[in-house]
Design goal:
Strand content: 35-45%
CATH class of the domain at 72-172 and 174-215: Mainly Beta
Strand order of the largest sheet: 1-32-31-30
Structural class: mainly beta
Number of helices: 2
Largest sheet: 4 strands, antiparallel
CATH topology of the domain at 72-172 and 174-215: Lipocalin
CATH architecture of the domain at 72-172 and 174-215: Beta Barrel
Helix content: under 10%
Oligomer: single chain
Distance between the termini: 49 Å
Number of strands: 32
């Protein structure tokens, strides 16, 4: 009996110690939380962030590292930050120490290309595609369409595709997604582009869907209608493609002016929420009746739109940024499409939106980070922070109590203490 009591006592003490250490880690901000790809672990913009009981008047900049130009957001895995950028004629993948910002390794390859003059003037030479980490490897999509795999520990280049025959007008911006051993990304130009699944270890093509050219929004992978599928925008459509074999399941016309479909689809309660340049925000359901696929409209909201910024869902509300009225934040009921509020106009050119708990964060191109409470009745701003010295188009990365910001050519770590 005494032995059993002793064992139970030791077990309880161990559980208490573990819970105490976890609590201490959360309070101190030392808990290491990963942001391994575009829009976070689940591609929904949601971060694991230790929300403070009181926000400081200013954030503390711990370090700044020069990494090169481009709008690709950094990603975090454990004690490393990975950055994809351009330096001169090279595209560079590098690993930084998350605590100090010092370079652990960097790998370059030549990525000379002739950009469209209109694209260079307003969008720069990139890259714009956020890399993806999976199973100890990094995968990137360069501005000219090169897909490259790197060993995340050493930086060794493992494989790279051949350059596509043609390129899109504003080159590439979508971020690769990795699923069950496949790297899925839309490569090529308007006439010869293919949504392609590469073997993650070898780069061999496993399947390709050639029904339409690529757009700029990043794909997601979800289970709908009993089938695992890639949902992504293309030049002229929104499509669902089987991850198993690349079969087209369904498509909806989705052509917009300037052929700039740049929003990542959102799924909430089986409703797929989408928008595009000049288009309303809309929600629809994917239907599979005995193998016959179709889509069915649920709601359409004409009060606002999304262009280069994808919103986040907290509870049953979609919070986002619209380019209308010189920049305007909005809240929409994600189940019904009803507008809940529109902010004051003139909020800026663009804003990248992420969320954590009952808060949403918006990083505007003017380098201001807004912290706002998820309030379906009104825009409730808690704090505003200046977080960079140049324009910020990349998404902010929230991890623990760390905020990583990519501006024109640097990455900075900001903390709450």
């Amino acid at each position: 009996m005494r032995a059993r009591i002793l064992i139970i006592a030791v077990a309880i003490a161990g559980m208490w110690l573990a819970m105490s250490e976890l609590s201490a880690g959360q309070q101190s901000g030392t808990q290491r939380v990963e942001w391994p790809q575009w829009r976070g672990p689940n591609r929904d913009g949601a971060a694991s962030f230790n929300i403070p009981s009181q926000w400081p008047d200013q954030l503390t900049r711990k370090w700044t590292a020069e990494v090169g130009i481009g709008y690709a957001a950094p990603i975090t895995v454990g004690d490393r930050v990975y950055a994809f950028s351009r330096q001169g004629e090279d595209e560079v993948m590098r690993a930084l120490d998350a605590a100090t910002g010092k370079t652990v390794w960097e790998t370059k390859y030549n990525a000379t290309y002739k950009p469209n003059p209109a694209a260079t003037r307003t969008h720069g030479t990139g890259p714009k595609s956020t890399p993806t980490f999976a199973d100890g490897r990094l995968y990137s999509l360069g501005m000219s369409g090169l897909v490259t795999a790197f060993d995340a520990a050493s930086g060794k280049q493992l494989w790279q595709t051949a350059p596509p025959k043609t390129e899109t007008l504003y080159h590439t911006a979508m971020s690769p997604i990795v699923d069950r051993g496949l790297v899925i990304v839309h490569v090529g130009g308007h006439n010869d582009g293919a949504l392609t699944a590469f073997d993650a270890r070898t780069g061999a093509i496993k399947w390709a869907w050639t029904g339409d050219g690529p757009a700029y929004g990043s794909p997601i992978i979800v289970e709908l209608g009993g089938t695992r599928q890639v949902i992504t925008t293309t030049q002229e459509n929104l499509v669902g493609v089987s991850t198993a074999n690349g079969e087209l399941l369904w498509k909806r016309p989705f052509s917009v002016r300037a052929t700039r479909n740049a929003v990542t689809p959102i799924v909430h309660n089986q409703i797929v929420i989408v928008s595009g340049l000049g288009l309303p925000v809309s929600g629809f359901k994917v239907i599979n009746r005995a193998g016959q696929w179709s889509t069915e409209d649920v709601w359409v909201n004409n009060d606002t739109t999304m262009d280069m910024s994808t919103g986040v869902v907290i509870g049953n509300t979609l919070y986002g940024f619209s380019p209308r009225n010189s920049g305007q934040y909005f809240a929409i009921d994600a189940n019904t499409g009803q507008t809940q509020w529109l902010s004051e106009p003139r909020q800026g050119e663009n804003a990248a939106v992420v969320c954590a708990g009952d808060l949403w964060f918006a990083l505007g191109t003017g380098a201001e980070l807004i912290v706002a409470r998820a309030n379906p009745k009104q825009m409730e701003v808690l704090k505003r922070y200046d977080v960079a010295d140049s324009a910020t188009w990349a998404q902010p990365v929230l991890s623990g109590q760390r905020v990583f910001i990519k501006d024109l050519s640097t990455i900075s770590l900001w903390t709450l203490n």
